[in-house]
Structure formats: C-alpha cells, structure tokens
Amino acid sequence: MRRVTNHPILEMEDKAEIPIFVDGKMLYAREGETVAAALTANGIRVFRHTAKRHEPRGLFCGIGQCTDCVMVINGVPNQRTCMTIVREGMVINTQNGNGGGGDDGHL
Predict the structure, then answer these.
(1) Residues 68, 81: Cα–Cα separation, whole Å
(2) Which phi and psi (to 5°) does residue 46 adopt?
(3) What pLDDT score was predicted for residue 12?
C-alpha cells in the first residue's frame, strides 16, 4: 500500500486496518480515511466510467465538488468517495455511467 507515513507538518498516527470489498476483492483501509484515500493507497485509480464514452474517471478535486470519484457504495450509486469515510466490511463497486442502470449521459 502507498500512504503518506511521514510528513513535516502533519502528525501521522497509525490507525487500525479494516477490511473493505472493492469489486469483489478484499482490500484493507485505515480507520478514519476516505474511500478515495483507501483506493488510492491500494493502487486503484479508476473509480467509474462515463455513460456516453465509457471513459475512466478517478479522484480529481478531492473536496466533493466534482463527480469524478463517485462509486457504488453498499448498493447506493453516486457516492463521492473523497467525502465518504470507510467502514469495516463496506462494499464498493466501480460505477458505470449514471449508476442507475440507464445510459442517459449524466456523469
């Protein structure tokens, strides 16, 4: 996993590792981190594919203003991973299109 472990300003503390499930695969996240941080630390860069062109998207703004990082979390589509804190046993899936099963061009 790739995480910041030493920072000249921020105090980095060790947190417990918890299991999450991403596209059917068990990975580990750190308690208190966002889904986006956990995925990035595990080498995952593609969080969704656009509806029209099926282009890959991932973490972009990191502050909840765009929708590039949305995924299906615990069965709910369009969840901003940069704003969602991981929970033990969370089920996360790559989102295709608008996440609602249709291809209406949104997101």
Answers:
(1) 9
(2) -100, 120
(3) 65
Tokens of 76: 């709910």
Domains of the chain, first to last: 17-96 (3.10.20.440)
Half-sphere exposure of 61 (CA within 13 A, CB side): 9
3-state secondary structure of 38: helix
* pTM exceeds 0.70 for this model: yes
pLDDT of residue 78: 97
Strands (E) in the chain, as ranges, are 17-22, 25-30, 48-49, 56-57, 70-73, 76-80, 91-93, 95-96
The confidence score (pLDDT) of residue 15 equals: 83
Q: What is the pLDDT of residues 8-23, one digit of tens each?
A: 776 667 788 999 999 9
State residue 103's pLDDT score: 43
Say if residues 30 and 17 touch (Cβ distance below 8 Å): yes
DSSP 5: -
* Distance, first Cα to last Cα, the chain: 29
3-class state of residue 76 by DSSP:
strand
